[in-house]
Amino acid sequence: MATRCGFQNLIGGSFVDSHSSDSIDVLNPATQEVVSRVPLTTKDEFKSAVAAAKEAFPSWRNTPITTRQRVMFKLQDLIRKNTRFWFWLSPYHEHFLEEVVEHACGMATLQMGEYVANVSNGIDTYSIREPLGVCAGICPFNFPAMIPLWMFPVAVTCGNTYVLKPSEKDPGASMILAELAMEAGLPNGVLNIVHGTHDIVNAICDDDDIRAVSFVGSNTAGMHIYARASASGKRVQSNMGAKNHGIVMPDANVDATLNALVAAGFGAAGQRCMALSTVVFVGDSKLWEDKLVERAKALKVSAGTDPEADLGPVISKQVRQRKGSASWYKAGSKVEQDCLLDGRTIKVPGYEQGNFIGPTILADVTADMECYKEEIFGPVLICMQADSLEEAINIVNRNKYGNGAAIFTSSGIAARKFQTEIEAGQVGINVPIPVPLPFFSFTGSKASFAGDLNFYGKAGVQFYIQIKTVTQQWKDLPSGAGVSLAMPTSQ
Ligand code: NAD
């Protein structure tokens, strides 16, 4: 909850003010107005949150799975009916809200073990999929509801308890989710929330009672967390940055492809891990680029709360300055002159203080340029050119990221070659980078992911459980039988 003092921690079922004297202002990126404050949760408060989760674990893990599922049914219903989210979600046009909760409603099936009868005479072996204990999640600013929902619903429905650290830039949606989860019947201590930045993240990585950490965010933070939390014996799944490419073949449907490129390139002001930030045109690119510019110019840039807005501001002034700076337009290249559409100087009437960058399109970009090498995470679409599908695939595969890639074509042969040869975790064929629904998993690869088990879907359940394999023997043993030194399964 947010009070006059700012956002509260959620510890053991109570929303409580932090005693910390340090806090961070949460700003509306369209106006710079201070919306609230986030405390830097103290070490003691963090310890209390972990202790509450630890205390709640024995009873929650023994709560029947059907009861745990029912809490998710209720939560899904409450999320659907709740309109308070929209203030936090409007900049991201966030639709993918409650699907993971919906999926968690079927946890009894997802968590089923396996059984093989009579592996040896009178001996059966079966596996049980048990919760781990206390788990934790660390969230990015974008998709402020969807990403927490990738984490705690799966974890708690498996029987774990949870400590969530929302982004310090927009923790509001997580707080609403926590209120709804409690209203849905999640017992005290099963979900706890702490706030802060590096220190609290490091405390999560180092804590001996936390068994698994889910992270979504940048590569700098993600690799640090992956290394530090793994070093203290935790399971870690780390979803990180992206440079998603779309290959456009000369035979692609023109209208559908342009619509897809504009929507995926500029939607949410490019602040989506699935944003399509790089287009590789096979063959002549000029005609495509002219039409792209035309469509991008027609987009309305305004506050996320403006129902007419196609794209809102970027998250902070610092980010705006970095992304709007000339440095990567020029670096080692003639890109400045190839800036087909320059959104750096945009003014949005009524929101003069906002962190706006208008749609920006850069042409003739090559792989050695800064704008290509770094993740921009803003409304900037980079255009490259290749002479063949083979060359375009090579460009994509040489990039260090492996989150997603798409092809636009009317040739099944080209699509099949692309699907087979492309090195990316999420592949779109005439669909700009798709976010898989939760019966699948979010399968970023290469530098976009560290860990073994992806978020949600079957892998997501596997991440939050430990398999116990039981071998049992129930047979009448003849009295007076001697001691056998054979392995039980070879008797
Ligand atoms: P971020 O890495 O700055 O912050 C993410 C979280 O890590 C925050 O909770 C923050 O407090 C913490 N953090 C940041 N730096 C840290 C450090 N050095 N040490 C410890 N903790 C640290 O990311 P962001 O700017 O909030 O989010 C944008 C990034 O997230 C982009 O790179 C985007 O691609 C990525 N992202 C990836 C996915 C995915 O599924 N692959 C989804 C959404 C966003």
TrEMBL record:
One of its GO terms (biological process) is L-valine catabolic process. GO terms for molecular function: methylmalonate-semialdehyde dehydrogenase (acylating, NAD) activity. Keywords: NAD, Oxidoreductase. It comes from Sesamum angolense. It comes from the Eukaryota. The lineage of its organism: Eukaryota, Viridiplantae, Streptophyta, Embryophyta, Tracheophyta. Belongs to the aldehyde dehydrogenase family. The keyword Zinc-finger does not apply. SUPFAM superfamilies: ALDH-like. InterPro entries: Ald_DH/histidinol_DH (IPR016161), Ald_DH_C (IPR016163), Ald_DH_CS_CYS (IPR016160), Ald_DH_N (IPR016162), Aldehyde_DH_dom (IPR015590), MeMal-semiAld_DH (IPR010061). Pfam families: Aldedh. It is an enzyme of class 1 (oxidoreductase). Residues 15-470 form the Aldehyde dehydrogenase domain. This is methylmalonate-semialdehyde dehydrogenase (CoA acylating). GO terms for cellular component: mitochondrion. Its EC number is 1.2.1.27. The keyword tRNA-binding does not apply.
